Amino acid sequence: QGDLVESGGGSVQSGGSLRLSCLASINFYGRYCMGWFRQAPGKEREGVATIDSDGATTYADSVTGRFTVSEDKATNSLYLQMNSLKPEDTGMYYCARIWGECRYVTTWDGAPFWGQGTQVTVSS
Questions:
Q1: Alpha carbon distance 86, 42 (integer Å)
Q2: How far apart are CA 73 and CA 19, in angstroms?
Q3: What is the pLDDT of residue 26?
Q4: Residue 38 to residues 3, 5, 46: CA-CA distances in angstroms?
Q5: Is the pLDDT of residue 27 over 80?
Q6: Is the CA virtual torsion 51, 22, 48, 87 positive or negative?
C-alpha cells in the first residue's frame, strides 16, 4: 500500500543535528516526488524539502544551507539531515510521496502517501 514511516526525531539543543528517516513499505517506480514537511503547534503545515526521482532537490529558504534531503532507492528510504538546528525548526515532521515531477506539483493536499510524523524539538 506504500505506507511511509518516519523516524529519527528527538529533542536537541540549538545548534545540534538530527537525521530523519522515512521508510517506504514498497518500491516506487516511474516519476515521483518526495517531500519533507513540518507543522508546529498552531501553525499551518509548511514544506521543508523535496527530491525528485531523478535526484533534483529543492529547499525552503528557512532551511537552505542547513538541511539536506537524500534518497536511497535500494532501501526505499528518504532522509533529511538537519544541522545547525534552531528553536523555530521545532515541529512534527512528515514525509510524503506523490506521482510526477516535483516541479509540476501544485499542492500536496491530495498526495496519496503520508507518514505518521516524527517530533523534532529544539531548545534554546
A1: 18
A2: 17
A3: 79
A4: 18, 15, 6
A5: no
A6: negative
The residue type at 77:
S
* CA–CA gap between residue 69 and residue 58 (Å, rounded): 9
Determine the Cα–Cα distance for residues 63 and 69; give it in Å rounded to an integer: 11
Beta strands in 1-124 (DSSP E): 4-7, 10-13, 18-24, 32-39, 46-52, 57-59, 67-72, 77-82, 91-99, 113-114, 118-123
> Would you call 18 exposed, middle or buried from its count of C-beta atoms within 10 A (0-12, 13-18, 19+)?
buried
Taken as a whole, the chain contains a residue count of 124
Task: Name the one residue in this structure whose C-alpha cell is 521508510.
Answer: 23
- Chain position carrying cell 501544485: 106
48, with CB counted inside 10 A (0-12, 13-18, 19+), is buried
Q: What pLDDT is attached to residue 67? A: 98
Backbone φ, ψ for residue 5 (5° rounding): -130, 120
Residues 8, 59: Cα–Cα separation, whole Å = 20
